[in-house]
Design a protein that fits this description.
single chain; 193 residues; alpha/beta; Rossmann fold; six-stranded parallel β-sheet; 8 helices
Length: 193
C-alpha cells in the first residue's frame, strides 16, 4: 500500500455523500496533523461529493495528509494498518462499517448518534464525540493516537462486543428466541379466543 509504518493512520469507510459528515472530519484532521504532521487519513469509498471534498482538501493543503482511495474490494487490508477508525456519520441505522472496524480490533471514534451509542460504551470499547464538533473529534482522535494502552484496550473490547453480541450464530439464536416468544404469545391468545 506504500504507507510507512511510522505514520499514524486513520480510516473512514463510507460513501462520500450528504450525511456522512466528511467535512467535520476534514476540519478535525487539520488539527490532528498540527500535532502529528505525518499522520494520514484514508477516505475509503466513492460518491457524488468526492470531487468537492478533494477540492477542500487541496485548498487546505492537506493533499499529503488525506488520501481518497476510492472503492476497494478488501477493506480489511486497510483496517489492519490503521491506528484508529473514525465514524463521523450524522445518522445511521445499523452501522455495519463501525461494527467491521470493531471486529478487527480497531479502536474507534464515532459520532454521538443513537446507533453508535447503542454499540459503544464510552472509553470501554470506543469513544464518542459530539457529532458536529470538529474540535471534540480532533481531541478524541488524538487521545487514541497518543495512548497505546487505551488503543489496545478499546480495540480488544470492541472485538469482544461484536463477537459476543453480533456474530451470525448469536443473531440466529436471538431470532429463534424471539420467534418462540411470539409463537407462545399467539398460542396463549388463541387459547382465550
Amino acid at each position: 500500500m506504500g504507507i510507512s509504518e511510522d505514520k499514524y493512520v486513520a480510516v473512514y469507510v463510507a460513501r462520500i455523500c450528504e450525511g456522512k459528515n466528511h467535512d467535520t472530519l476534514i476540519k478535525a484532521w487539520e488539527i490532528v496533523t498540527q500535532y502529528h504532521p505525518s499522520a494520514l487519513l484514508l477516505f475509503i469509498g466513492d460518491g457524488p461529493l468526492k470531487e468537492q471534498y478533494q477540492s477542500v482538501v487541496h485548498e487546505k493543503s492537506l493533499d499529503d495528509k488525506i488520501t481518497f482511495t476510492g472503492s476497494i474490494p478488501n477493506i480489511v487490508e486497510y483496517l489492519s494498518i490503521a491506528d484508529v477508525g473514525v465514524f463521523p456519520s450524522e445518522s445511521e441505522g445499523l452501522p455495519l462499517v463501525l461494527m467491521e472496524m470493531m471486529a478487527v480490533e480497531l479502536p474507534v471514534v464515532a459520532s454521538k448518534i443513537p446507533s453508535c451509542c447503542d454499540l459503544i460504551e464510552e472509553n470501554v470499547n470506543g469513544i464518542l464525540y459530539e457529532t458536529y464538533d470538529y474540535k471534540d473529534l480532533a481531541n478524541k482522535i488524538l487521545s487514541v493516537l497518543c495512548d497505546n494502552e487505551l488503543k489496545k484496550k478499546l480495540g480488544e473490547q470492541a472485538k469482544l462486543l461484536v463477537c459476543n453480541h453480533y456474530s451470525i450464530e448469536n443473531m440466529i439464536n436471538r431470532h429463534n428466541i424471539l420467534y418462540q416468544k411470539l409463537l407462545l404469545k399467539q398460542n396463549f391468545t388463541d387459547a382465550y379466543n
